[in-house]
């Protein structure tokens, strides 16, 4: 009597990889559904429909080596400046990443100043390394409680979810469609984890959002 032939290791490996890929895809799909459904309220594409708030929060995005703003963050800054000039918000918080040879908040601030925003009304957060850091630090460091978050439609649901988890009451003004869809699908998985676990972020001394924005320009550098 002959024994059954052993299943080739390559076939076993293929099955394992397939199962893991299926589970991974399921996790991504479920996370995206949860994020979008939980954060679907209070989003608008129209500046005129935004209710007055003290602060506009502008999450950072790519800045070119010459200091000029990338298209995504330029849209956000322009929309926040529009809110400011309409009197819808009193101050703007520019939050992004800064490290040796790279700076997002500085050029964002400079663009707002060039557009006529008063220097004392522009705050910078140099440790907004991702959306969770931006929202959590807005509350913990700057004392923000209510705000308008300005971002693209693609990222709006995740921004709203994380703002809520950070203790902020926000409206989200969307400025365009956004790109990098696959990257955002994956980012929503991380965002849901952050909103659930609420990990600590680096803080430092408080910078009251009711103070002078210029105090934030160098205090974190």
TrEMBL record:
Native organism: Pseudonocardia nematodicida
Keyword Translocase: no
Residue spans crossing the bilayer: 12-36
Residue ranges of every copy of the DUF218 domain listed in the record: 55-185
Record's protein name: ElyC/SanA/YdcF family protein
Signal peptide boundaries: none
Keywords: Membrane, Transmembrane, Transmembrane helix
Pfam families linked to this entry: DUF218
Lineage: superkingdom: Bacteria
